[in-house]
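When time allows, look over one protein, given below as sequence and tokens. The question is which stretches look regular and which look disordered:
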Amino acid sequence: MNWKSLRHYHRCKRREEQVICELPDALLLFATVLRAGLDFQTALCYYVRWGPPGLLRQELERVLADLSVGTSRVQALGKLSSRFSSTAFSDTLSIIQQGLRLGSPLSPLLFSQAQQLRQMHFYRLEAKAAQAPFKMLIPLFLFIFPAILLILFGPLWLSFQQGGLNA
């Protein structure tokens, strides 16, 4: 594995994490627009027009471009799902696709999915916070402890070098 492929892998992971972080807010906006009585394509337009700038907005712009060409909503969302390998993102899109196919109301599904994604994000952040103290041990042992030992025992060592402890 070379450096370019490793860098590409990390870039893709960061990209997926960014989309996953933006997804719950988008789902809540979709659910609110759908609850107001508008359709899913209008909800996409609202998010693309007034949503926060980011990667998810760019991807949804591509979905709207596919829809304007004549691609069905299910196919456009399938293309979006194929661009990401995240299971949370593909699960969310499959829920939306299934709701569109069956004609079931999407608003309650989107609210619950947004809550679930927020909970998953919270768990991921908790896991990263639990790892932080262990990651801080390395600089602590490499840089801080030697400096403290030098400050504490340096004068003692110098006095031993000059002839011992004569009080």
